[in-house]
Amino acid sequence: MKSFFLSLMLIVNAGFAFGQSSVRIDFRPMFNGKELVQDKKYWCEAIHDSVSVSMLRFYISGIEFLKNGKSVAKEAESYHLVDLADSSTLSINCKLNKNISFNEIKFNLGIDSATNVSGVMGGDLDPTKGMYWTWQSGYINFKIEGTANKCTARNHEFQFHLGGYLSPDLSMQKMDFACKNSSGLKFNVNVDRFFSGMDLSNTDHVMIPGAEAVELSKKAAGIFSIVN
User: What pTM was estimated for this model as a whole?
Assistant: First the structure.
């Protein structure tokens, strides 16, 4: 009898295994077309200055797969903190039913308003991760810090902590990419593009929600590109 139940359990577990597959999503921070190395100095042609990045963190949430414009799968509890300093966070594995076909992916850069007002959370949303202000200001969606020669702040530092979930300062950005149906999707995070058009000698810190954070959040969304 024990042997029968053991066999039954193996069959059930095998069914779950064969009924699911995973899609791996890789995020590759880049600078000038090359892999971004933390604290390394790069020449940024867009601002004619030397730039180094000491911190890059951002939230990816609400991952959804679509086929010809129709939703076919959504990741439950979809909140992921991607951190340049922790290579294990640069890849996300999404579990899908094995027979699902998709040619489009959507996700958010940041955390939605409903989650921001849900109280203190755990996992990647744990405030100890350093990406939470207060219940009034909510989560930081995108954080980048480093140095540039033109920055007039102490030690030539820049700090951009972008967030805000209350209207009219909604900073979360919705993103949508056409893609090939495969087990792996790759996104380049082209950090040098974030500085395009910026005057770091005039603005090198944004640390609170507001119109400036919203505009910079739009710029942050523009640094993502899919590699098909």
Answer: 0.89
